[in-house]
Design a protein that fits this description.
heterodimer; A: alpha+beta; 5-stranded antiparallel β-sheet; two-stranded antiparallel ribbon; 15 helices; B: alpha/beta; Rossmann fold; 8-stranded mixed β-sheet; globular
Chain lengths: 347, 251
């Protein structure tokens, strides 16, 4: 190692020590803290209770994570609290199957049309027999059936490897949530049978449903959601580890489906008001992507009637309107956001 | 908006706590609302200058960091009578001086984010004009945070080689943390040296303004941190020089 490399290595050490403090002092941190204080008292909505494991969660938990495509992390609240990813897993598994099977084949099995119906609706596109899109349960179950692997364990391992590439750490399946999901998942089983009837899925319904229940029972924290969203924003590469989580050619597929279908039957209004590709889960998580700029993760377990986190929706709305993140906010050059990352030095 | 002023020295014994306490009182004497927070969790001491002891500090910064109280509940009104007469207010948030509590925070650590939230809340809830942070010497979490969030940083050094090297480190860190304003203060200069020459040399060496040069003061040592020097000796050269420092950071 020569002197200049040595100096670079030392500078990198100092930077990594200092970066978190820099983030804490940034105007964005102040903005997130204010959002946190503003919405902390909001107790509207209801925790998902279709299985006892979800009902047990402390409803007051609340965290916001913003991760930029160059790896800056600004967060507030119960950022390390684990919860189940639930439907927020769907876009990521969708991406994996695009890599596995290619765009055309995936599209032949699962559509990309918003339903306007509840996430668990037992409904398929009448003319094609396909589920409407990969973000509703029917589509996500069919999508799980497309994951490649010699046996169920191999398939699960590939899903977990994908999550590791997105998060930069090993996640695990919570067995009690998974067991509950499996034992109460009659509606999802009915959906699978309907799809089998239309010839849209293979015979092996149990394996397909099992993988689906497991992907929903993966434990994440809010920071993970922020990093996963930032990985999508960063064209499929994790901004902290530089690991590739998704082939860049499929980013547009995943993001456009999130944009139109990600927020259950609130997707239309979400696209209009927030204008960002996003996906919510009944565990209380939301991932939202500002392409080429940052990822947002929000966690708050109380849900509105459509199954979206109440505080999560509010936080995304405020972030989007304050910083001009809406995809079609064409007059915004993100300068407001970029300048919020560092304090201005007065002369 | 409250201005946050951090006072730091790379090594101990520079007279940091004395200067922080006296500067805050000077600011409050101008009718300002001021708080001092002791973030020197490992070796707290500034409370002594305001006459607080273990028994009079029911709640401390430690309790806030352990979620036992709000930050404002750990704030003590220590306004000296003469300052109150001028419409000023001085609050102090001390650190625990109990050995077990110091040990606990060193063992368990604490959340920097929580400390940051606390500092912001303190500014709001006490409607502060100035928050002075008395830091721990060297580089640690609470020092890095206080430098990162400061509007103004004062680094105190003595004219010796070890302090010079340490000051260079702190300046490098402050530069990376984009601290808006950094100034140096030289303390404990031997009386045989020309203070103006010291000021010029130090400013030149660090390319940073030197806003005060203080000679070693026997009166200060004699007072033994029992009370606030500038109130006891309003006409002492130390007090006069500190007014000059105050003019730079308190507007």
């Amino acid at each position: 190692m020569n002197d200049s490399q040595n100096q670079q290595a030392l500078d990198a050490q100092l930077d990594s020590l200092i970066q978190p403090f820099k983030a804490v002092a940034s105007p964005l941190q102040e903005f997130l803290s204010d959002l946190y204080i503003k919405y902390k008292p909001l107790t509207e909505g209801k925790v998902a209770d279709y299985i006892p494991e979800l009902a047990k969660v402390d409803p007051d938990l609340f965290a916001i994570s913003v991760v930029t495509v160059d790896g800056k992390v600004i967060e507030v609240g119960d950022i390390d609290q684990l919860f189940t990813i639930q439907s927020a897993s769907k876009p990521f598994v969708h991406g994996l199957t695009l890599e596995d099977c290619g765009r055309d084949f995936v599209l032949s099995r699962v559509g990309v049309e918003p339903t306007g119906e509840a996430f668990n609706a037992i409904v398929l596109d009448e003319s094609s027999g396909r589920p409407y899109n990969p973000m509703v349960n029917a589509g996500a179950i069919a999508t799980a059936g497309l994951v490649k692997g010699d046996d169920p364990t191999a398939k699960l391992n590939r899903v977990m490897e994908m999550f590791r590439n997105y998060c930069g750490r090993d996640l695990y399946v919570d067995m009690s949530v998974y067991t509950s999901e499996r034992s109460t998942g009659h509606r999802n089983r009915a959906i699978a049978h309907l799809m089998l009837n239309f010839g849209m899925v293979d015979q092996n319904l149990d394996d397909m449903l099992d993988l689906y229940f497991k992907q929903c029972s993966v434990m994440v924290n809010c920071h993970d959601l922020g990093v996963m969203a930032a990985t999508l924003a960063n064209n499929g590469r994790n901004p902290m580890t530089n690991a590739r989580a998704l082939d860049s050619q499929y980013i547009k597929d995943v993001l456009s489906v999130m944009y139109t279908c990600g927020m259950y039957d609130y997707s239309g209004e979400w696209s209009y008001r927030v204008g960002l590709p996003a996906k919510s889960g009944v565990g209380g998580g939301i991932v939202a992507v500002v392409p080429k700029l940052l990822g947002i993760g929000v966690f708050s377990p109380r849900l509105d009637s459509r199954g979206n986190s109440v505080r999560g929706v509010k936080v995304c709305e405020e972030l989007s309107s304050h910083f001009g993140f809406h995809s079609f906010d064409l007059h915004d050059d993100h300068s407001k956001f970029l300048s919020s990352l560092t304090r201005t030095r007065s002369t | 908006m409250a201005k946050i002023i951090s006072i730091h020295s790379f090594r101990g014994g520079t007279g940091k706590s004395n200067m922080t306490a006296n500067l805050s009182v000077m600011a409050a004497s101008q009718g300002k609302r001021v708080a001092i927070i002791d973030t020197d969790i490992q070796s707290p001491g500034i409370h002594v200058l305001f006459g607080l002891d273990e028994d009079s500090m029911a709640l401390t910064l430690n309790d806030y960091l352990w979620d036992r109280c709000t930050i404002a509940e750990a704030a003590y009104d220590v306004t000296p009578a003469s300052v109150a007469a001028k419409g000023g207010k001085v609050h102090l948030i001390p650190c625990s001086i109990k050995a077990g509590e110091i040990a606990r925070i060193l063992n368990e650590g604490y959340s920097v984010m929580l400390l940051n939230d606390g500092l912001r809340k303190l500014c709001q809830e006490l409607a502060l004009d100035y928050l002075f942070i008395d830091t721990h010497p060297g580089l640690n979490k609470e020092t890095l945070l206080s430098i990162a969030i400061s509007d103004s940083l004062i680094i105190i050094l003595r004219p010796d080689r070890q302090d010079f090297q340490g000051t260079a480190v702190t300046l490098q860190v402050a530069n990376r943390l984009d601290t808006p304003k950094t100034n140096l203060v030289v303390n404990k200069v031997l009386t045989k040296y020309d203070r103006e020459a010291v000021r010029e040399q130090v400013a030149e060496k660090f390319q940073t303004p030197v806003i005060g040069v203080f000679p070693v003061s026997e009166e200060m040592i004699e007072l033994g941190s029992k009370e606030l020097f500038t109130l006891t000796f309003p006409d002492h050269p130390y007090t006069t020089e500190l007014r000059g420092v105050a003019r730079h950071v308190v507007t």
